[in-house]
Amino acid sequence: MTAGDRISGRDEAAGEKQASGVVSDAGRPGRLVVLSLLNQPPERVAEYIGHLVARGDQVELLVARPEQWRELDIQPAPRIHAPDRPEEQFLVRRVERLLVFRVPGAVTAAVERLSERSFARPLRRPAALLGRAQRRVSGAVHGRLFMPAYRALRPLLLSRDFNRAINAIDFGSVDRIVASDVYTVTLGARLAKRFSTIPVTTGMEL
Question: Does the model's pTM come out above 0.85?
Answer without folding.
Answer: no
